[in-house]
Amino acid sequence: MALVAPRISASRNVVYECNATRLGMLTPSSNSVLEPVTCAMLAGTPDISAHFSRFRVTEIALDAQALDQFDPSRMLPAVDLLADAEVDANGLERHLGQLAWKFERDSEPL
């Protein structure tokens, strides 16, 4: 990955360009494996760089209070921070509790 001359981004940050696709990863704050696993997965791909942002999650359970941590309104500030990095794609790392809630909610009528 070769760096080129800096430029000013739309958000007025100085950006040093590299010829890489920027992958944004959104993850719960209690996840302790995402960064090392993602970096290990991308080790052989110098054309992809990983960028991380977190939203607060302190309890994994299926009760309403725990599931409320995954409300989209709680995740949006972390998504906004990834937008500052001008990532090319976003990924969402999910906990099992969130997936169970999603499947339950997907089966509910609108």
Key features?
alpha/beta, two-stranded antiparallel sheet, 4 helices, 5 strands, about 110 residues
Tally of domains: 1
Give the number of DSSP strands: 5
- Cα(first) to Cα(last) distance is 47 Å
Unreliable stretches covering 5 or more consecutive residues: 1-5
- The helix/strand class is alpha/beta
Count every helix, treating DSSP H or I runs of 4 or more residues as helices.
4
Order of helices and strands: EEEHEHHEH
Strand content: 25-35%
Average pLDDT number: 76
Identify the overall geometry. flat
Share of residues in helices? 25-40%
Largest beta sheet: strand ordering:
4-3-5
Explain this structure.
This protein has 110 residues and is α/β, with parallel strands linked by helices. The protein is 35% helix and 28% strand. It is built from four helices and five strands, in the order E-E-E-H-E-H-H-E-H. The protein has helices spanning 34-42, 64-68, 72-84, 96-106; strands at 3-8, 14-18, 21-28, 48-55, 89-92. The strands form two sheets. The protein has a three-stranded parallel beta sheet, sandwiched between helices. The chain has a two-stranded antiparallel ribbon with strand order 1-2. Strand 3, helix 1 and strand 4 form a beta-alpha-beta unit. The longest helix is centred in the last third of the chain and has 13 residues, at 72-84. The N and C termini lie far apart (47 Å).
